[in-house]
């Protein structure tokens, strides 16, 4: 539909706009393109002034959606196709059987008749249809009094807290299969089925008002359970039927809290449309507003603008042959669309006069469609790849992860969000402490409901509401809890209890408390208000509260102070390994000889990306019981400072290093294991590049691959590599601690420049809107509509973006 149309390369079948097709021709030498253009014209009027009678339009042959903003009664479409030969731009109209070879004609027909990859699908076909389990209708459920809490689950046999499945017959919570659904597990759910024969289980954490992941052990496949709500209610989980409505509408089809929708979208106010660079909206693809809101906020940050849009020529020139599968290309394309102003132009005077004459208000802001971007960033993600509503905070972290993994050289715009958190854990019995640091990208603030300043109004409203519901009268006007921001900040800084705390001073479990402080302050602080939770009855709840978020924020008092005088540190002793009951009889009474370590289990773990020395220790300390048990040891110990250090055994003469026992290397040699070098070189990288990457990352395979991708400027230096490989003291280089996470520390004083608001009762439904402060005024981004904000609802936001004020 654009003025220049679309150019389809007849070799790769990639499509380019007029401003980019020349670049593709220069880069690839491909000279034959099919030019596609859809013309939109006003219909010819009849003698009476009305449109001519409708007839089949033979001029439309492209499988494209028509513009919803144009009235089909007043406009008609005409598609045009022709071959263009570069560099002379020689044109051949299509169809042209006489002049074109048969193979070219066949290829052109195939392109013109192909289906659009973005053709709107019926919602019922968004996902593959699962079979209904034959056990669902007559499933036996034991009346054993089991009630499942809304959180805090763990496997009944091995204490794992992820990939957990609830058996729908007896309510047992057990871990799933080893790396089933990309998560670890010891297969205890399957073992329970083999022991008891109970066929159906539901995965905890996937239960939503629309259903859940149900697996049939007997049928050996994922299934549908039409009676899932009843089966879950048997164990006290009644969230599904709590969301039903008499008219059959889902929660995202209705607006249960009209006032919230009106306030956040500034309904009832005539908002002035905004046009030009930075004022371009994004079309809603069907529950894609979470993505649109996050991307609008992201590309309002100068570091992201410079990293992508500022590097557009270089990124486009050096993009891979298939740019649709390149993250940096797609980020740059989206950023250019939002910031260039090419897709946000005000209507010309003649169009405004025409609208007034026709007494119509045709939308002028079309926005851009993020279909290709969404398809790429959500690829292989079970939630973001669906057409369901998602959590904007989860997508923000997902995007940061993609930016980290696809950074351009040493430039990483997500550095502006990264900060270090100091966690102080204290044993309540011995009063000893431990300090650790972790990386984070956003600050999560709890909602301090107990600090509401209008408690009397809330109590009166609740009584009136219940009375109105009982008597079937109209509900009273909503009263929203007013929470001071200072109370939320205070709740964030207060100590919290640590579940299952193991005190190294007592060598036993004890009560522990944890406090968190900022070890560094980020350039841009993202604050999430934790509005979403679960009630005791499993019903998801949203705190509909008003928080007086400040325009200027000072959190310098939350700066970490480290170990204080008079504090005594907890001993650096690891907790004992928890061995599954059914495996204890396989555990030897004494540790095995280091030379007898099962190297197949070691390599299986190393291929997952863990340091080789850590894998050897994991297999050793779990008595050669296999990779699954050793993996659990790694999860428990991976935060320890000596996690990747060589295995040291009293009585075995010091270090039992992987290099010495497996590859015949000396204890002082830093030569990476040949097996890991071979894995990297099999991917097409040079040997010296693999060696240097492994040395720089302490032989960690996953980190080494990240190192290679983040050092495109690496040049082959064979003399250096040979010298390093022959240097018996090369381990001196590896002994230096790996470079820590890059942070941009500074003052903890900030000013608010953007916030994302959510309307609806849960993150799985509703709508997102973004407000951004630009050129001294607030602007509302509501999908494709971009307008000057009159009353920005800063007190109702979900995510807030602050920028540091230079000190």
TrEMBL record:
Predominant location of this chain?
cytoplasm
Top enzyme class, one word, equals hydrolase
Please state every residue range assigned to the domain named UBA: 596-637, 671-711
Q: Residue limits of the UBP-type domain?
A: 131-239
Q: Write the record's keywords in alphabetical order, separated by commas.
A: Autophagy, Cytoplasm, Hydrolase, Isopeptide bond, Metal-binding, Phosphoprotein, Protease, Repeat, Thiol protease, Ubl conjugation, Ubl conjugation pathway, Zinc, Zinc-finger
Query: CDD domains from the entry?
Result: Peptidase_C19B (cd02658), UBA1_UBP13 (cd14384), UBA2_UBP5 (cd14386)
GO cellular component terms listed in the entry, alphabetical order: cytoplasm
A biological-process GO annotation: positive regulation of ERAD pathway
In this protein, which residues make up the domain named USP? Answer: 280-805
The reply to whether Hydrolase figures as a keyword in the UniProt entry is yes
The entry's Zn(2+)-binding residues are 155, 158, 175, 188
List its EC numbers: 3.4.19.12
- Reactions listed under catalytic activity: Thiol-dependent hydrolysis of ester, thioester, amide, peptide and isopeptide bonds formed by the C-terminal Gly of ubiquitin (a 76-residue protein attached to proteins as an intracellular targeting signal)
One MF term from GO for this chain?
A: protein-folding chaperone binding
Q: Which residues form the active site?
A: 289, 767
The protein's location, in the record's own words, is: Cytoplasm
> Does the record's keyword annotation contain Transferase?
no
Assembly and interactions? Interacts with UFD1. Interacts (via UBA domains) with SIAH2 (when ubiquitinated). Interacts with BAG6; the interaction is direct and may mediate UBL4A deubiquitination. Interacts (via UBA 2 domain) with AMFR; the interaction is direct. Interacts with UBL4A; may be indirect via BAG6. Interacts with NEDD4.
Q: What does this protein do?
A: Deubiquitinating enzyme that removes conjugated ubiquitin from specific proteins to regulate different cellular processes.
Q: Which family does it belong to?
A: Belongs to the peptidase C19 family.
Full protein name: Ubiquitin carboxyl-terminal hydrolase
From what organism does this protein derive? Chinchilla lanigera (Long-tailed chinchilla)
| Lineage, top ranks | Eukaryota, Metazoa, Chordata, Craniata, Vertebrata
What gene name does this entry carry? USP13
């Amino acid at each position: 539909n654009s003025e220049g149309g679309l150019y389809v390369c007849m070799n790769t079948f990639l499509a380019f706009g007029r401003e980019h097709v020349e670049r593709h021709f220069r880069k690839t030498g491909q000279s034959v393109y099919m030019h596609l253009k859809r013309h939109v014209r006003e219909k010819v009027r009849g003698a009476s002034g009305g449109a001519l009678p409708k007839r089949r339009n033979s001029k439309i042959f492209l499988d494209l959606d028509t513009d919803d903003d144009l009235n089909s009664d007043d406009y008609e479409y005409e598609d045009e196709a022709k071959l263009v030969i570069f560099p002379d731009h020689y044109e051949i109209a299509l169809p042209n059987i006489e002049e074109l070879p048969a193979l070219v004609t066949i290829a052109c027909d195939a392109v013109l008749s192909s289906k659009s990859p973005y053709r709107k699908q019926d919602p019922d076909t968004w996902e593959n249809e699962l079979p209904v389990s034959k056990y669902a209708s007559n499933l036996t459920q034991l009346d054993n009094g089991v009630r499942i809490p809304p959180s805090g689950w763990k496997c009944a046999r091995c204490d794992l807290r992820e990939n957990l499945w609830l058996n729908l017959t007896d309510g047992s919570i057990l871990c799933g299969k080893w790396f089933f659904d990309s998560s670890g597990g010891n297969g205890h759910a399957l073992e329970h089925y083999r022991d008891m024969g109970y066929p159906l289980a539901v995965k905890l954490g996937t239960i939503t008002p629309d259903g859940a992941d149900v697996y049939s052990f007997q049928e050996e496949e994922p299934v549908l359970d039409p009676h899932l709500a009843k089966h879950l209610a048997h164990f006290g989980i009644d969230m599904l039927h709590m969301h039903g409505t008499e008219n059959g509408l889902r929660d995202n089809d209705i607006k249960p809290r009209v006032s919230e929708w009106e306030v956040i979208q500034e309904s009832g106010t005539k908002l002035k449309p905004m046009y030009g660079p930075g004022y371009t909206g994004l079309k809603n693809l069907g529950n894609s507003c979470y993505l649109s809101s996050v991307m609008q906020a992201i590309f309002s940050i100068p570091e992201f603008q410079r990293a992508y849009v500022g590097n557009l020529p270089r990124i486009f020139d050096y993009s891979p042959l298939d740019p649709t599968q390149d993250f940096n290309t797609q980020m740059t394309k989206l950023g250019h669309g939002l910031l260039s102003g090419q897709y946000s132009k005000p209507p010309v005077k003649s169009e405004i006069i025409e609208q007034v004459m026709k007494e119509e208000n045709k939308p002028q802001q079309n926005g851009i469609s993020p279909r290709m971007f969404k398809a790429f960033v959500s690829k292989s993600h079970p939630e973001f790849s669906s057409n369901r509503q998602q959590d904007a905070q989860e997508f923000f972290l997902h995007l940061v992860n993609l930016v980290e993994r696809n950074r351009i050289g040493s430039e990483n715009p997500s550095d502006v969000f990264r900060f270090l958190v100091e966690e102080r854990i204290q044993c309540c019995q011995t009063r000893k402490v431990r300090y650790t640091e972790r990386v984070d990208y956003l600050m999560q603030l709890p909602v301090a409901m107990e600090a509401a300043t209008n408690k009397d109004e809330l109590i009166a409203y609740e009584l009136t509401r219940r009375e109105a519901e009982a008597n079937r009268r109209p509900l009273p006007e909503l009263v929203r809890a007013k929470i001071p921001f200072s109370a939320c900040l205070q709740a964030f800084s207060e100590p919290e209890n640590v579940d299952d705390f193991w005190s190294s001073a007592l060598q036993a479990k004890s009560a522990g408390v944890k406090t968190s402080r900022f070890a560094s302050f980020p350039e841009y602080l993202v604050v999430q208000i934790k509005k979403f939770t679960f009630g005791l009855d499993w019903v998801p709840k949203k705190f509909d509260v008003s928080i007086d978020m400040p325009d200027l924020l000072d959190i310098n008092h939350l700066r970490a102070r480290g170990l204080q005088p008079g504090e005594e540190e907890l001993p650096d002793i690891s907790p004992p390994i928890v061995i599954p009951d059914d495996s204890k009889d396989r555990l030897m009474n004494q540790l095995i000889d280091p030379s007898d370590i099962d190297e197949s289990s070691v390599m299986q773990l190393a291929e997952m990306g863990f340091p080789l020395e850590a894998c050897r220790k994991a297999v050793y300390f779990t008595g050669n019981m296999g990779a699954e048990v050793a993996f659990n040891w790694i999860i428990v110990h991976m935060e320890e400072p000596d996690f990747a250090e060589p295995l040291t055994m009293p009585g075995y003469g010091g270090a039992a290093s992987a290099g010495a026992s497996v590859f015949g290397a000396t204890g002082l040699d830093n030569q990476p294991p040949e097996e890991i070098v071979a894995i990297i070189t099999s991917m097409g990288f040079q040997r010296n590049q693999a060696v240097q990457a492994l040395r720089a990352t302490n032989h960690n395979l996953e980190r080494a691959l990240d190192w290679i991708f983040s050092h495109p400027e690496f040049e082959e230096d064979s003399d250096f590599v040979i010298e390093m490989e022959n240097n018996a003291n090369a381990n001196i280089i590896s002994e230096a601690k790996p470079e820590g996470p890059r942070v941009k520390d500074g003052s903890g004083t900030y000013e608010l420049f953007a916030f994302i608001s959510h309307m609806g009762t849960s993150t799985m439904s509703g709508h997102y809107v973004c407000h951004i402060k630009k050129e001294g005024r607030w602007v509302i981004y509501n999908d494709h509509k971009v307008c000057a904000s009159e009353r920005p609802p800063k007190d109702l936001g979900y995510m807030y973006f602050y920028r540091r004020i230079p000190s």
